[in-house]
Amino acid sequence: MRFTTLAQALAVIWFHSVREAAAALDRPVSSVADALERFESRLATRLVYTAASTLYLTPAAEKLRTILPDFITILSGIVAMHGDGLPEDGNDTVSVLHRAARFPLSLTFIERFVTVAEAGSIHHAANRLDIPQSNLSRQISQAEQQLGRHLLSRSRNGCTLTPAGEAFYHAIRPLIRQIHLLTAHADQRFSHALRDIRFGTILPINYESNLTSNLAQLVAGWQHAYPHQNLLISSGTAEDLFRDLKSATLDIILTDTTVSTDVFEKRDLFASELVLAGPARVVGPTASVPDLLAAHPIAVPSLKSGLRQSVWKTLETVISFENTQPVIVEVDALPIMLRLILDHDYLCVLPQDAIKNLTSRIGWLPLPYQPKVSMRLVWPRMPKARQAADRIITLLGYAPAGEDGSTPEHTMDTGFQKPAMASCSKMGTF
Prior knowledge:
The protein is α/β, with parallel strands linked by helices. Among the domains are: about 100 residues, Orthogonal Bundle (Arc Repressor Mutant, subunit A), CATH 1.10.10.10; about 90 residues, Orthogonal Bundle (Arc Repressor Mutant, subunit A), CATH 1.10.10.10; about 90 residues, no CATH class. Helices cover about 45% and strands about 15% of the residues. It has 17 helices and 13 strands. The strands form 3 sheets. Strands 5, 6, 7, 8, 9, 10, 11, 12 and 13 form a 9-stranded mixed β-sheet that branches. α14 links the parallel β9 and β10. The two termini are about 35 Å apart.
């Protein structure tokens, strides 16, 4: 978490308004809203809710507001070390939050700096933090440049704090204590989550689908690899999954929707080609896709489904809605979609993997431009959640991402097939 996230979230609580906070901090409203969402995710606690176009604080936020003066006092001492410091009349709440929103360092770095100061050695601190010494040394040098102050005196025997470093250390220690108090609930939740992982996935199409089969294999593999942890799997629409992830009801989700916020970490696993599915006697190899879509009713997922985004974009490339008004029905229950195909001559745009093991009475045709729907794993930005996600990724047949978020090429042989870049995975979308 960065200072700007903390400052923007505290400003919303101070003003009881996202828009007023954005105006006071000279930030876009969307930036402040995203910062508040990141802060809520880190705390695993909802801080605000909206009713009748009015923003209200939850009891947790009201409690946080009572200690806001303590935060302002602490932050004023920290931001005063950046640049020329605070002006004489700049110690009020808004001025401090305005400066804190532009403070260049992250809260992760200040925790690392405290470790260095207390270890008296960058080498020993890097070992404690389990990060490369070169990375830590570079981060400290960058921080010194950004603050315009030397924080450490380095020698062969280790390092000592300069007067500026001593002042910085004593300024940031109280903030770390306050942050730890705020995040204790989330840390306890994810400590418990290491014993009881709640994993949400999009709705499988039926019990014979590839997704259903491979999730069952995941449960069996998890039980074998981690017998003292429960992996609890539930399913729902993409909207439901993200709601439960934000409220910490779920720890990790597998979804087919785009992740547009950096509140969460994500890992794209594979993609499946979208095809036009319908009765085999109707969807023949010589049939015209535009003609079929114009002549038959179409069943699509509701807006709560991540698949809907991909399906609608696909339909827009094939159908001219200005000239054609197709019959479109929203259905979230995928088994009902199949019955609409089999019994009522409906068409559906579905991932190819979702239907290839089904009855021969359902046929399919490729669509123009070969559109695809991607599957991705999503989890909160917390180390313990990342550990659980890496375990799931490995059991799905993928190597965990590196610390920088890169995707390794090597995969473990766990009975799953990692797809080639241009092909579909063994693990189907539904």
